[in-house]
Amino acid sequence: MENKRCKFWLPNKNRFCALCPLNGSLFCGNHNSRSQGEWIPCPIDPSHSVLEQNLKGHVKRCPLLKHAQSLSLQPFYRKGINAGSDGEEETSGVDDSGVPTMTVSSEMKRNALHEMSVPEFFNLIEKIEFLHESLCKDIQDSIQMPEVCSLWIKRGVEDRKLPFQEKHIMQQASILGNLENIGVLKNSLGRKPFECTEPVEKEEEDVPSVIEFGAGRGYLTKMLADCYGIKRVFLVERKAYKLKADRSLRQNESLMLERLRIDIEDLDLNAVESLQGVPFLATGKHLCGAATDLTLRCCFPEYRKDSSQQNTANKFGGLAIATCCHHLCQWKHYTNKRFFLDLGLTKEEFHAITWFTSWAVDANHDDSDLPDTTNCRSHLQSIKEQGDGFVIGVEKILSDMQADRRAALGFKCKWIIDMGRLMWLRKHGLDAKLVRFVPPSISPENHLLLARPSNQL
Asked: How many CB atoms lie within 10 A of CB 190?
């Protein structure tokens, strides 16, 4: 069996790749040496690349071709509708010249940071320290385990039917508990799951739909539907998954389930026919990078001049989004560019801040005390006193920085990015807050954005 495995060694996993090698090669397709030539992203699915000379034939048989063709015919598909803009105004997904903006890779962010002058770098660190001290001191812990979820978990353990690990259970339960805490979700222990301020003719109109963005296999929605009596569920996910919760959810005859296989960037929520006129809650467990910003725009498109985009926010009932992977954030997609610009930060400094965030989760540490007790000022001051900091350059300064200071800086940058999103929600007239929803020992990605209509008291 071992001879049929790819011979590429994975040092982080301390084993060889488990995939089968290609015919005539010791390696699988992922690790086989690439042919010489120009490799370009596939225009149908940019997640993989193809030789330029093979592009014409590839686009005719790309595995995602059929899905892309069928998706383009859906009424809720509008290419780049939630993408944002590279400029200050949130009007389109192109720059001022009409050319589509390019994704800034991690390597590009790192290189731009290394090219900074030392005074520019020192000034950026000072800004980050000041912003964290002035904006992020009131972040609270809100670790929840609702009774209804606890009973559901106990029953699943007894029946041996829990399909996920304990760390995922704790996160899912706390997300739902925080929605319950802000009053937009009521558990199924004798209470309706949603209350409207005005009487309605049908009881089922009291029941909101729930949209899980970046749903993956849909197990957050599984717990939500079982514990809170939700009757309409929409799972938004661009990838195809096996072992989904859909089969179990569809066994509930009173539940309407719809899976939308689409990128959040291209989803026109107002054009989803079965969602029109229905109140909804928006959820998401670990929406990587810009997916959080795309989701916020998807739920609140009223900033657009198109009058047809005015009705979704009127049915908004609440939101709970666990953010993560801030190093993948992009200036183009970020919802609150004005927040950074007003603080005197440039697009280039924003990308540097997103690059720093990867330090927060690259080792065995958490943010329980680092951001409040550790800063980089003393490190930079010592460099200034030595007098050689302006000679050795930014790359050397970063490589010499101690691990705890690097981690602290990363956590602070994550909070600053999420604070901008929080301010954006409040600017849209919502009661919103940012909390830690699980201990860092469960997940260092423990930021949860919460929002509800301001008149829902």
From this structure: 6
Residue 229 near residue 256, CB atoms below 8 Å: no
CATH 3.40.50.150 domain locations along the chain: 125-187+206-364+375-385+392-453
Phi, psi of 235 (to 5 degrees): -110, 115
Contact indicator for 17, 5 with CB cutoff of 8 Å: yes
pTM: 0.81
* CA 423 – CA 339 distance, rounded (Å): 8
| Intra-chain end-to-end CA distance of the chain, in Å | 62
Tokens at 148, concatenated? 């209804």
d(CA 237, CA 216): 6
HEC profile for 377-404? HHHHHHHHHHCCHHHHHHHHHHHHCCHH
Q: What's the full length of the chain, in residues?
A: 457
- Phi-psi region at 197: left, alpha or beta (left = phi > 0; alpha = psi -120 to 50): alpha
Burial of 302 per CB tally in 10 Å (0-12, 13-18, 19+): middle
Question: How far apart (Å, rounded) are the C-alpha atoms in residues 98 and 285?
Answer: 34
Mean pLDDT by 10 residues, the chain (457 residues): 77 86 83 74 79 84 80 88 73 42 83 90 91 88 93 77 76 95 76 38 58 92 89 90 82 89 93 88 93 95 51 76 95 95 93 93 57 61 60 82 87 95 94 94 93 76
Identity at 48, one-letter amino acid code:
H
Alpha-carbon 287 to chain mean position: 2
Q: How far apart are CA 375 and CA 235, in angstroms?
A: 41
Distance (Å, whole) CA 379 – CA 395? 14
Mapped onto helix, strand or coil, the DSSP state of residue 9 is: strand
* Cα(413)–Cα(350) distance, integer angstroms: 9
Structure tokens at 114: 């290394």
Of 376, 366, 365, 301, which is closest to residue 127 (Cα–Cα)? 376
Q: What's the CATH fold of domain 125-187+206-364+375-385+392-453? A: Rossmann fold (3.40.50)
